[in-house]
């Protein structure tokens, strides 16, 4: 019998004027008036499903063969490798990191091998020379497999890492270097696919229409997850079920559409910051993944008509309860420019009871006998209460438990919410001209052929003045 999974829930009570007051909150009438825009956004997303840069909507359904290959390859890596290292950046790194943090032991790399049951896991998403050198200090290359991931096959950071690692591997293992590197990239475009073919590397393909930040549920994320022993079929089922829950153009039943409409209305009210605040360490990096998705998709200068709009909501990551002691003061009393999204968990995977030992001190001993589970949950609801009392817009996503299925649901929820919000804003949520500009300037600064005009443009920018350097 198929396993029965419980669904995540989206609670938006505290976005509404009934709870946070008429001045800041969204009235039932305002939400009802969003209906036409929401229906149009839903229709646009539905129309474009599986086409252009919306190939990701079909990933829960069209990867049967790919998943088979991933699982077979992962089995071999799990058997032979002590360490598995992802070389990638942005969308080619944040998804693998978020899913690892969500679904593996929180101290995975420190666990003894017999308990870990998978290689140690590292994601190298920066080109800090000290970081690369320190990685090389700790790896046993004989027992390490690298997964170089880049959709464009040309990102300077990732290709630099690849060149460094491949050089070391070739010097040490000659022709057998290829046994230590697996490539994940576009099947046609870019340089990595050409290099991978020349070197005879095992390769996974990033399908057409799947941009970096929407790529976690293709081999970009599924292969590292499978190496870690994560149930990728359950993850994809979670995605599929959330996708199906969002099929209707009805804000009463479609959670991602409602969430997008609420954020759109919040933006109209000047709430240009979206704080993502999970109350579990396992979803800490999910907030980073969300930040990229929301920022890079919605932060745009022009709309689809070519008009200057400069839209977007700045995403901020926060961790409950940790950031109650650093950021929440601002969220409760600072400018009315934020929406806080709590992510709560009904059942943590462990329970820890707070011990006795301070019976003479009632203001400490009241904690004894409670669990950390009760403490963290109470603190989330207490913070929700404090924000709401201060008329701060907030909403909550509740996971019955953090597992592969609920993580799949959560990621699909955010991807669909982003697509709907992009449609409501009238922008292209799937390009990233601002990122490309920086990439091109890097190529020019490092002398890549074909970027001479960009190099000239950079040379002719106004020189910096020493008057402004102290
Ligand atoms: O979402 C995106 O498109 C970007 O963040 C990319 O993932 C990032 O720039 C890395 O690109 P690539 O995978 O082509 O190396």
Automatic annotation (TrEMBL):
Q: Which reaction does it catalyse?
A: alpha-D-glucose 6-phosphate = beta-D-fructose 6-phosphate
UniProt record similarity statement: Belongs to the GPI family.
Q: Look up the EC number in the record and give it.
A: 5.3.1.9
Species source reads: Candidatus Stercoripulliclostridium pullicola
Annotated active site: 296 (proton donor), 325, 439
Q: What is this protein called?
A: Glucose-6-phosphate isomerase
Which PROSITE patterns does this UniProt record tie to the protein? P_GLUCOSE_ISOMERASE_2 (PS00174), P_GLUCOSE_ISOMERASE_3 (PS51463)
Keywords from the named record = Cytoplasm, Gluconeogenesis, Glycolysis, Isomerase, Membrane, Transmembrane, Transmembrane helix
Q: Which GO terms describe its molecular function?
A: carbohydrate derivative binding; glucose-6-phosphate isomerase activity; monosaccharide binding
One Gene Ontology CC term in the entry: cytosol
GO terms in the biological process aspect are:
gluconeogenesis; glucose 6-phosphate metabolic process; glycolytic process
The UniProt transmembrane annotation reads: 83-103
EC category name: isomerase
